What does this fold into?
Amino acid sequence: MPLHIVRNDITTMKVDAIVNAANESLLGGGGVDGAIHRVAGPGLLKECKALGGCKTGQAKITKGYCLPARYVIHAVGPVWRGGSYGERDLLVSAYQAAMALALENGCETLAFPLISAGAYGYPLEQALKVAVDTIWDALLGCDMTVYLVIFEPAVCTIGYKLFPDISAYIDDHYVEEHIDMEVERHRGAMALAAASMQPIKQGPAGALPCEADLQSLEDALDQMGESFSQMLLRKIDERGITDAQCYKKANIDRKLFSKIRSDVHYRPSKSTAMAFAIALELPLAEARELLGKAGFAFSGASKFDIIVEYFIAHQNYNIFEINEALFTFGQGLLGG
Ligand code: AR6
It folds into this structure.
């Protein structure tokens, strides 16, 4: 999946490059900057001293020294001064500059902290939104995998403020705390079978099915109709979009999409199937149909499903807004 939101300490991330929320001097400081310099060791400061600083909204690259990451990209975000001093543009520019440097240096995996959201005082929810929107836009033009690393649990509690409607929707629809996904998967598969097969005659209990029954079972299986992969490809064509537009919008990586394309019987995970329903902007009934082809159904006992269903029902197909909401409510993300 091209964009992941994870809770972690960025200094532990094994990626090609991590981004540092630096200041214009590039000579270290507190927060994530201090943590990165501590783990990287004195070699990092020495290289930084030779860089001659960095303007706000721009970025510079160094080696990673003792960090697990090969490079550190030092990006300078703006200090928050109320919002009318070009802070948003500068923050967008800092993310874009860091992504451009990562690409130039052949990085395939990159991890960002929430730039400016600590000592520089950028309001947390706005910082999160700028980060997600900017990374998402940049990812449409390249095949990198990006991790947005969230450090403080407070980011999750802002979610209830950001998504009050979803909180209410979950309260209305959530029927159980725990759900056995296997049972749910089985149920989905049974529903699929029931929808596409003729009833099979029951023999006496314990008796083997007779030849005629097996024949009718084979016929029924032949008549199962389109597979998930076939339905997906058909809907992509019907919508007049390219494969790449579809899998990028679904936050699915190219390799996984190729597998689905080349294997007519490919069974995707539930979250992958839902991600394609979002990318194709399917109305709820069609989303249910596509999900059914993968052997799944939306469940009122799963927060994950309720959130995705909520967005589809409200015709909001922005996968990153959906993923922000899923993350906020402690769920996994949509995508591969
Ligand atoms: N891993 C991931 N995220 C972290 C970590 C970590 N180890 N530590 C902190 N964060 P900040 P800024 C989060 O203050 O606002 C420095 O002194 C943190 O919770 O590090 O851009 C520089 O030298 C917050 O969400 O950076 C500058 O002078 C986010 O990283 C100034 O602070 C950014 O917080 C830059 O301020």
Q: What stands out?
A: Residues 9-11, 21-23, 29-33, 35, 77, 113-120, 149, 151-152 surround AR6 (CB under 6 Å).
